[in-house]
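Why does residue order matter? Because the sequence determines the fold. Keep that principle in mind as you read this record.
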Amino acid sequence: MTHKTGTPLDPARTSDVAAIQALLAESRAAWNRGDGAAYGRCFTADATDVTYVGTVYRGGQEIGGAHGALFAGFLKGTELTLDITDLRFYGPDTAVVVTRGDVGKGRPRRLGKVATYTVVREPGTGWRIAAVQKTRHKRLMEAVSFRLQPATRPATRFD
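Structure:
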């Protein structure tokens, strides 16, 4: 497996990559079932979740409870789509995962959000989400910036 940047992953990390992919799949499945408690269990006890609208939740229990309420309200019946675009390890028990995704009724045509996850390996529980920051990808603003300021274009694009 390689990063989308083309950097090869250390073969010794294959099981960690699979476990992190499974964690994000578990969080996605909990979201898609509308199960706030299960969603919250994907996070550490002291996690931080910065939502797309800028709300900051702290701790898996609060994250799960808030999402349970959201799933019963205006997020009822929504599905989370999530594609990993980059995964990098920082030591034996920490990784940063960048994803493209979106929320809606069914798979969206375009993945319009970017999320950055910090995941950690906890003794006895395995990999958990310690932090996530979600941002809307504003393609038009990005294109204008790149045209007016070409030096702002990143070396690697993920879409």
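The chain has one domain: 11-152.
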